[in-house]
Design a protein that fits this description.
Layout lengths: L1 H15 L4 H17 L2 E6 L6 E6 L3 H9 L14 E5 L5 H9 L4 E5 L3 H11 L5 E4 L2 E3 L3 E9 L4 E5 L7 E7 H8 L6 E4 L5 H4 L13 E4 L9 H8 L5 E6 L2 E6 L13 E2 L9 E5 L8 E4 L3 E4 L9 E21 L7 E8 L5 E9 L4 E24 L11 E8 L1
Parallel strand pairs: 3-4, 3-10, 4-5, 6-9, 10-11
Antiparallel strand pairs: 1-2, 7-8, 7-9, 11-13, 12-13, 14-22, 15-18, 16-17, 17-22, 18-21, 18-22, 19-20, 19-21
Helix pairs in contact: 1-2
């Protein structure tokens, strides 16, 4: 299929030149040609994400995807540092995925009421542990809503509560209930693209959840929700919030942020559990299946060689961005077994040693290994994790050497 072959060619080219804007425009044009001539599920592979996003051909998905990842709809600067972001009308998750990339310390609750959209939202966000989802509508009180009003060429749906009971098939809750579901005391930022329900979401200007809010991105649908603009502007007091246009959305930012934390880098785990690849190598590791393996996502075993053998090592290459230390839990999980020496070393891009530390663990003993860099570390670094039997050990039997969530912080 020529269209699909061209898509794959462009994906390879973007991977080699991720900053080429013209190439990106060509790619989205090609996605559009695929989407308009086919039906079925297709993927978009963008170099900054490390994994695919799914879209439905024959639907507006590709247009929404292009708005976010070609036109940079969310490429705006804010004074606040949102750590809890509530996305109302999350659709298929494209905006949530982009915001998760832009705010690597934040956690998300992405809310989408319509079942077909929600299935794709789950698929697109499942690999990111910072994103939770809920299949429900946001409203000003608990309700059952009908999905019988269509607009925008008949593909968008305006939920409403003006229908007979049999037509009310969609559950709705208040923002307060959504925050309780997430276990959050409040949200620092809300993104609301709820097909007219922004009027109901912001209906109460005295709602307590607004007190913690530092920023809101709202798409207004005045044509199907009259007075929506007035309701939102009343809830986000202009004395408290600056208001400016953001493409076809509105951006409200609190003048004196409540969550303007100093910038710190997100943790950089050695063992990646999110989409994308992280480079590593092993050296002198026993060839048995228990020699090296990853378990429970971010942990690994590096089994020591018998006494007198070379240390077993796993070497990771990753990017430091102002990180100040290496941290890992260590566990000698074997029994009965001789003591194990756990050693970690971090090497800078120029080959110099940023830090080194080691600790000896007896059987069934656990601890923590920390390397302080004495400053902020930047650039490509190599982290070596090493295990060896203690000098007095007679054997490496049952020497289960576990590294628990090794990471730069």
């Amino acid at each position: 299929m020529p269209d699909l072959a061209r898509k794959l060619e462009l994906e390879a080219a973007m991977l080699a030149a991720p900053g080429d804007r013209a190439l990106r425009r060509q790619y989205f044009d090609q996605l559009g040609r695929l989407a308009i001539a086919h039906t079925g599920l297709q993927t978009a592979n963008l170099p900054e994400l490390g994994g695919p996003l799914y879209l439905r051909c024959g639907t507006p998905d590709v247009a929404v995807l292009a708005q976010i990842f070609r036109d940079d709809a969310f490429a705006f600067e804010m004074r606040p540092t949102p750590l809890r972001i509530l996305v109302l009308g999350a659709y298929t998750g494209y905006s949530t995925v982009d915001l998760a990339r832009r705010y690597p310390r934040a956690r998300f609750l992405a809310v989408e009421p319509l079942v077909d959209n929600y299935r794709l939202l789950q698929l697109n966000t499942l690999a990111n542990p910072r994103i939770r989802t809920a299949q429900v509508a946001a409203w000003h009180h608990p309700a059952r809503l009908a999905a019988t009003r269509r607009f925008q060429a008949d593909w968008a749906i305006r939920l409403h509560d003006e229908a007979v009971e049999a037509e009310r098939t969609v559950g709705a809750v208040s923002v307060k209930e959504l925050l309780g579901h997430a276990g959050w005391p409040g949200a620092d930022m809300v993104v609301c693209d709820a097909s007219g329900a922004e009027r109901e979401v912001f209906a109460n200007p005295l709602a307590p959840w607004l007190n913690s809010l530092d920023a809101a991105v709202v798409r207004l649908h005045e044509q199907i929700a009259p007075q929506a603009t007035a309701w939102v502007n009343a809830a986000l007091d202009p004395d408290e919030f600056e208001h400016r246009k953001l493409g076809d959305m509105e951006l409200y930012v609190r003048r004196e942020p409540r969550t303007a934390y100093p910038p710190i880098p997100p943790e950089a785990p050695l063992l990646r559990t999110t989409p994308g690849l992280s480079t590593f190598a092993i050296a002198d590791v026993p060839p048995a299946s228990f020699g090296f393996f990853v378990f429970d996502g971010g942990n690994c075993q590096i089994h020591p060689n018998p006494p007198g053998g070379p240390p077993a090592r796993a070497i990771f290459t990753l990017r430091a961005d102002g990180h100040e230390r290496f941290v890992s839990g260590v566990l000698h999980a074997g029994q009965p077994a001789a003591p194990i020496v756990f050693t970690a070393a971090v090497q800078r891009e120029d080959g110099s040693l940023a830090g080194h530390s080691e600790v000896t663990m007896k059987q069934r003993e656990s601890g923590r290994l920390v390397i302080e860099f004495g400053g902020k570390l930047s650039g490509t670094v190599r982290v070596a994790l090493q295990t060896a039997m203690a000098p007095s050990a007679p054997t490496a039997n049952m020497a289960w050497a576990r590294w628990l969530n090794p990471r730069l912080v």
